[in-house]
UniProtKB/TrEMBL annotation:
UniProt cross-references to SMART domains, sorted A to Z: ENDO3c, FES
Catalysis performed (reactions): 2'-deoxyribonucleotide-(2'-deoxyribose 5'-phosphate)-2'-deoxyribonucleotide-DNA = a 3'-end 2'-deoxyribonucleotide-(2,3-dehydro-2,3-deoxyribose 5'-phosphate)-DNA + a 5'-end 5'-phospho-2'-deoxyribonucleoside-DNA + H(+)
Name of the gene encoding the protein in the UniProt record: nth
Cofactor field: [4Fe-4S] cluster
Tagged with keyword Metal-binding: yes
EC numbers: 4.2.99.18
Family annotation (PROSITE patterns): ENDONUCLEASE_III_1, ENDONUCLEASE_III_2
Signal keyword on record: no
Species: Paenibacillus darwinianus
Protein name: Endonuclease III
Keywords for the protein's UniProt record, in alphabetical order: 4Fe-4S, DNA damage, DNA repair, DNA-binding, Endonuclease, Glycosidase, Hydrolase, Iron, Iron-sulfur, Lyase, Metal-binding, Nuclease
Any one GO BP annotation for this protein: base-excision repair, AP site formation
InterPro entries, per database record: DNA_glycosylase (IPR011257), Endonuclease-III-like_CS2 (IPR004036), Endonuclease3_FeS-loop_motif (IPR003651), Endouclease-III_FeS-bd_BS (IPR004035), HhH-GPD_domain (IPR003265), HhH_base_excis_C (IPR023170), HhH_motif (IPR000445), Nth (IPR005759)
Origin superkingdom: Bacteria
Amino acid sequence: MNAKRMRHILDTIAGMFPEAHCELVHGNPFELTVAVLLSAQCTDATVNKVTADLFRKYRKPEDYLVVPLGELEQDIRRIGLYRNKAANIQKLCRLLIDRYGGEVPSSHEALTELPGVGRKTANVVVSNAFGVPAIAVDTHVERVAKRLAAAKPDDSVLEVEKKLMKLVPREEWTDTHHRLIFFGRYHCKAQNPKCEICPLLDVCPEGKRRMKSVRASKNITKTIVKRSDKG
């Protein structure tokens, strides 16, 4: 992928989703960290439904530690992997209190040392809570990057992140992260992507293959119908 093609992609998705933003509802870095931890293998919409009550009940790390683990599990049971996530939240809160005075650290390195916080979560937190440019690669970003050939099909999540960091100007990392998510969530979906109306079809190898397959299928159908009519 060359710089000119990437610029075209960035400008196009910026025009499509100029207001792209983090859709996880939160009021501070701590709530964002918990929300992103909960979002693994779960939709943002479901997380927001759960955290609407959760963040009223638990306002600081200490609050999560004064209840039994089983109670916290019940509070987030609508979330996938809720047992593991509840345990990680309590471990995370204990570490925040013991090591950081109950505050979420602002460095990427410190964040990734917290229980349940991986590289993606840390990138989301530093960029949205602390204004540090970062590209968090979730399923949407990974899918879009590979479909548009900004990364190879067999690249790992880390390799996708590194390639995007090279292709995208640093000051645009955070905005690009949000726009790629919106593009993947609402347009270039995992199932039934909107290739036929996509403004990036001209630079999308995957889209071109899909449209070629669609046209071939339609031609076959037309041939079958014509033969049926003749019969």
